[in-house]
């Protein structure tokens, strides 16, 4: 039998990492040399208590347990090497190398066994996974639950950070299985232990993140938060910054502790510990140290006995132990005189504090942005209302923070602060031409572009222009506004009795052409305006003389029963009365309802009879109105076709007959055009003249006088 065995390309598992190297087995023990670091691990043969051979991800592996509880794992063996190793262990170490495979069923319900420095989760007799307890950094308990957190492995790209175990309750008295599990872990884990007494304890402090009330125990090297559900141990080395911020109501104070790495609860990471204090709370504090130790340790920053406001005591003790400055707001003052601005970030409302070297937002979620991280800021109009604005910050890494719903009164103060700190403002080009004050920004809500409002304004202007044009054209718009005969009235036809008048009108051809185009344009606008008004005109008011619609059976019954319901229920309101009546009607028998149905049917018949009489009378009156209108139009057209002075009565009769011919045969002379010009000046007086003409036929003298004018 060989005295030694050597294996190359063997991997040792250390804190989750696989380190390759060379493994040598000899009579004296087992030696592993790390190829990367050169470190040598030596396990004496006399310390070995158990050897296990099992299949692993990298082939086969060897697991060794020692008397002092240490576990060594080596992977990378081939299956054919088992017999050689088994014989070597029997001969030199007097150990049986057992074969034990891992369980691959995928179950998550099993038994936890603690063996030395190892926690093994088994299903039946087969282990599922094993956790070296030396890797545990934190162990917290909950209701029927234990959470293990692990040290971060900087050498591995991905590392396991947390495992939760559900521990079912048992019937055994006096033994809490959750606490027993946690104690087994803590006894072997690399966890910060609270050795000795706390320097001081603050009871029942209100904590916003993580939410709840916690007792804070101050130890020399770490801070212990003890709550009803969770415990957190925070080493002072993880504290980055301290902030003391006054609330906007001037009655409370925020004390903020920035942490890196953050404290963890499940998937939640708390980068900030935020405590809320009332200014009225006072405390007398006595440190659990003698005066010499206090003087030697804190060099006058703390004394054995102190008293004052609670927030002052907490901040003073933390400053002395952490040895970091406390950041407070600078000289910024908002519109209301507060040192912060009310705003919203994501879904929650909070307070934004402009500091001397950055911004901090509390409280959900807390955000701290240093000025040297900021690429630029931007002032944006509010998305929902113009009474507020948004303040956007983009960092050099490309992360954008939007603080919305800031009151516009804060705009001037915030803009001046950002400008004084010489931060890049993205929309400065828009701001240079204006004084960044509240008044300028307050007026800007009227400058918001509203496409619908602009369109309405344009349509209103068009309607106004059309109304002005139509009032200049004629005060009375009838069917003659677009008379085909008027288009040709400036040129007399060759068969017209007054054809000679056309020669004298040639001098103003250009003027008449321009007038003609204007008249055509006006007539078209008038027609369009009338077409738009038609739907409005079609909606007529209700005729007071029309018969009223009949009531339903329910309404007839309600009118008859209203007083009875009121007497049965004194002081009942109108709405309650309606509800009560509905209930009574619903519960009424079919026979009683039939009586009211008959009354409703009789009322309906009477209504139909009255409507027939009403519609018959209205039809006769509308016929009379139409005949009057036709007579009026006929007389007006006769007046338009009257000849000029010197024309015979024969031509008058001919023009009256021709006035109803088609467009090609309608003639017009200079006097008729003059009459149209005069008509524009006398649009109001013609109303009375038309009424007289409608009742009395025009005489030749009247026609002649009309043409003279």
The number of helices is 17
Shape: elongated
Helix content: 25-40%
Cα radius of gyration in angstroms = 51 Å
Q: Would you count the extended β strands for me? A: 31
* Mean pLDDT across residues: 75
- Helical/strand content category: alpha+beta
Kindly report the spatial arrangement of strands forming the biggest sheet. 4-3-2-1-7-6-5-8
Give the end-to-end Cα distance, rounded to a whole number of Å.
Answer: 147 Å
**Most strands sheet:** 8 strands, mixed
Unreliable runs: 429-448, 474-508, 533-539, 635-675, 677-682, 688-709
Query: How much of the polypeptide forms β-strand, as a percent range?
Result: 25-35%
Textual characterization of the structure:
Belongs to the SSRP1 family. Residues 547-615 bind DNA. This protein is α+β, with helices and mostly antiparallel strands. The protein is built from 17 helices and 31 strands. The strands form six sheets. It has an eight-stranded mixed beta sheet with strand order 4-3-2-1-7-6-5-8. An eight-stranded mixed beta sheet has the order 18-17-16-15-21-20-19-24, covered by helices on one side. A hairpin with a 3-residue loop joins strand 26 (348-354) and strand 27. The radius of gyration is 51 Å and the shape is elongated.
Q: What attributes characterize this protein structure?
A:
709 residues; alpha+beta; 8-stranded mixed β-sheet; 17 helices; 30% strand; elongated; disordered C terminus; SSRP1_DD; FACT complex subunit SSRP1; histone binding; DNA replication
């Amino acid at each position: 039998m060989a005295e030694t065995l050597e294996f190359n390309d063997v991997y040792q598992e250390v804190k989750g990492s696989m380190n390759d190297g060379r493994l040598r087995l000899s009579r004296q023990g087992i030696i592993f040399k790390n190829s990367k670091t050169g470190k040598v691990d030596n396990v004496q043969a006399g310390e070995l208590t158990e050897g296990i051979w099992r299949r692993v991800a990298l082939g086969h592996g060897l697991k060794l347990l020692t008397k002092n509880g240490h576990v060594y794992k080596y992977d990378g063996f081939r299956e054919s090497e088992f017999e050689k190793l088994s014989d070597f262990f029997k001969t030199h170490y007097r150990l049986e190398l057992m074969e034990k495979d891992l369980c691959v069923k995928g179950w998550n319900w099993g038994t936890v066994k603690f063996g030395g420095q190892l926690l093994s989760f088994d299903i039946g007799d087969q282990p599922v996974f094993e956790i070296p307890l030396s890797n545990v950094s934190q162990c917290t308990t909950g209701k029927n639950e234990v959470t293990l957190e692990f040290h971060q492995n900087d050498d591995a790209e991905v590392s396991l950070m947390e495992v939760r175990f559900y521990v079912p309750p048992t019937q055994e008295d006096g033994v809490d299985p959750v606490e027993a599990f946690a104690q087994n872990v803590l006894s072997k884990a690399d966890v910060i232990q609270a050795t000795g007494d706390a320097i001081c304890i603050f009871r029942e402090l209100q904590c916003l993140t993580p939410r709840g009330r916690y007792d804070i125990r101050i130890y020399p090297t770490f801070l212990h938060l003890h709550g009803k559900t969770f415990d957190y141990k925070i080493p002072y080395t993880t504290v980055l910054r301290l902030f003391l911020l006054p609330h906007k109501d001037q009655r409370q104070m925020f004390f903020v502790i920035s942490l890196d790495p953050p404290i963890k609860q499940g998937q939640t990471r708390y980068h900030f510990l935020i405590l809320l204090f009332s200014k009225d709370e006072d405390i007398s504090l006595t440190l659990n140290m003698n005066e010499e130790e206090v003087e030697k340790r804190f060099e006058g920053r703390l004394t054995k006995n102190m008293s004052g406001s609670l927030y002052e005591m907490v901040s003073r003790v933390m400053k002395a132990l952490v040895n970091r400055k406390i950041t407070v707001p600078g000289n910024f003052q908002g519109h209301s005189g507060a040192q912060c601005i009310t705003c919203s970030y994501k879904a929650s409302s909070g307070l934004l504090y402009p500091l001397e070297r950055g911004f901090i937002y509390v409280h959900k979620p807390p955000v701290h942005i240093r000025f040297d991280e900021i690429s630029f800021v931007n002032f944006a109009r509010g998305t929902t209302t113009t009474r507020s604005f948004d303040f956007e910050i983009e960092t050099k890494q490309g992360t954008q923070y939007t603080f919305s719903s800031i009151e516009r009164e804060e705009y001037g103060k915030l803009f001046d602060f950002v400008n004084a700190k010489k931060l890049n403002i993205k929309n400065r080009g828009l701001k240079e031409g204006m004084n960044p004050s509240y008044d300028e920004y307050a007026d800007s809500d009227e400058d918001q572009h509203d496409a619908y409002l602009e369109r309405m304004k344009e349509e209103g202007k068009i309607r106004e222009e059309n109304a002005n044009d139509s009032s200049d054209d004629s005060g009375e718009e009838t069917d003659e506004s677009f008379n085909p005969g008027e288009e040709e009235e400036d040129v007399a036809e060759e068969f017209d009795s007054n054809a000679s008048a056309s020669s004298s009108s040639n001098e103003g051809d250009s003027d008449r052409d321009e007038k003609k185009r204007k008249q055509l344009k006006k007539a078209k606008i008038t027609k369009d305006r009338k077409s738009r008004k038609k739907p409005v005109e079609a909606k007529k008011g209700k005729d007071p003389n029309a018969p009223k619609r009949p009531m339903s059976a329910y309404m007839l019954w309600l009118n008859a029963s209203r007083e009875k319901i009121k007497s049965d229920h004194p002081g009942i309101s109108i709405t309650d009365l309606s509800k009560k009546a509905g209930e009574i009607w619903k519960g009424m028998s079919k026979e009683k309802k039939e009586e009211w149905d008959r009354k409703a049917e009789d009322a309906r018949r009477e209504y139909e009879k009255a409507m027939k009489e009403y519609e018959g009378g209205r039809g006769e009156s509308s016929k009379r109105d139409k005949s009057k209108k036709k007579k009026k139009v006929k007389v007006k057209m006769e007046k338009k076709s009257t000849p000029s002075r010197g024309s015979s009565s024969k031509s008058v009769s001919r023009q009256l007959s021709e006035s109803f011919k088609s467009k090609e045969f309608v003639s017009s002379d200079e006097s008729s055009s003059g009459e149209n010009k005069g008509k524009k000046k006398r649009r109001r007086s013609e109303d009375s003249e038309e009424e007289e003409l409608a009742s009395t036929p025009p005489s030749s003298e009247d026609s002649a006088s009309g043409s003279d004018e």
